[in-house]
């Protein structure tokens, strides 16, 4: 695969140390090309993280109680939306999950959209990136479930309500829980990969006019898939931390 300009830049600056670290790990982590151990997806992810840090610092520097600007209104609107949604799904004390859910939303959304910039591509059209996001979400809500319920009670809910059927229910529930990682990964990856391929194909065939429609559709899909990913994460989180009444 041809390197993007950001990938080539990072490989020139950090390729040596990164390759040394990867070579010290098991063979499965060794790069196919030791001279370019940083892939396009990883390079653009690093760019996304840098952009988000700059945005957060810029918004933080412009916070004002007396005269809030547009960026502050936008940040507060997103905070309210995620907080209200998690409050409806999870219930009381859901606001403590808002920072993670907002960070996940913005991170996935920007990765989805950055491919619209010429000379760049969406990291989410590489399967390992959605998988990484899904694994982080999986670990996050399970750790909170263990913290909320305790290890014994948390594992106990996989056995089901009927004790004598636990030997059947337990492995089924474990497989079902692990399948959530696959579901989150495939949904995000497949939609973004298909969207990018269709958009690029139409721009190659018809440079003007019709591709704009698909470009708008791609933007819609980018927002929708980021929303669905975080919505499902919130639902999974609710299943392990929501209080029963």
Short description:
The protein is an all-alpha fold. The protein is built from 8 helices and no strands.
Which stretches are poorly predicted, pLDDT < 50 over at least 5 residues?
none
Query: Please, how many helices?
Result: 8
Helix/strand-derived class? mainly alpha
How many strand elements? Answer: 0
What portion of the residues fall into strands of 2 or more residues? Answer: under 5%
The figure for the number of domains is 2
Q: Give the helix level as a range of percent.
A: over 70%
Distance between the terminal alpha carbons, to the nearest Å? 54 Å
User: Which outline best applies?
Assistant: globular
Major beta-sheet overview: none
Rounded to an integer in angstroms, the radius of gyration calculated over CA atoms is 21 Å
Oligomer: single chain
**What's the overall average pLDDT, rounded?**
87
* Topology as a string of helices (H) and strands (E): HHHHHHHH
